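Following up on my earlier thread - several people asked me to post the actual chain instead of describing it. Fair enough. Here it is, all 265 residues.
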Amino acid sequence: MSAGEVAVARGELLLAAKAVSKHFGGVKALREVSLGIRAGEIYGLIGPNGAGKTTFFNVLTGLYTPSGGEIVFAGRKLVASAPHKAAERGIARTFQNIRLFANMTAAENVMVGRHVRTRAGVLGAVLRDRRTRAEEAAIRRRAEELLHYVGIADRADDLARKLSYGDQRRLEIARALATDPQLLALDEPAAGMNGTETAGLRALVEGIRADGITVLLIEHDVKLVMGLCDRVAVLDYGVLICEDVPAVVQHDPRVIEAYLGGGVA
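Reply from S.P.:
Thanks for posting it. Predicted structure:
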């Protein structure tokens, strides 16, 4: 957690989106979306293709500036002018399309994520003083711990591009965890996974939540979302149409219509 950030007690409101909109010219990708995520929960965000899910992620993590509304995170308005600023505030993310440094090792990829929490500046990197060397050793140890945590410790020295698809997904999660987030936003983490890999991902996400990190999950695998998330929000054409526990969401007529088409009971 960065200096000045406040830990939010489990069950309390960690993130509140208030009438968040995002327009691209005449296209209204998000239209006054309001939702709340509580500390310690796994919160799902679903919807048909083009519903605005990834746009919401991009606003949350500083890739896009909202056209209207605001996001309050840990009691403070989030002004995420760049992704590294969002990471400093305690929000980490993965991407729908894996974005690793292909020609760096797994350990090096995680170490990159850890640098958002380091203190050594340019001068320390040049002089290589004792404090800088100690910090770099700590970064390496933390990277090894996280690779063990996600289940790929034996691949620490392998290039990222040589890892299996499922292991690359795990590596991306480890790199995000290296920033010490309060909120971990996962964008389609199960995409392309087989059944065994998906089951392993579910166990990993449950473990992350058990260790005190709140999870925001975008996922097309509705069965996974309904079995994993505490609450689920549904977007359709940029509009929030439902936010509730999975048992209520999956029987909501508006959700059924959004997924299956008009006129479906």
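Residues 1-90+183-265 form a domain with the Rossmann fold fold (CATH 3.40.50.300). That should answer part of your original question.
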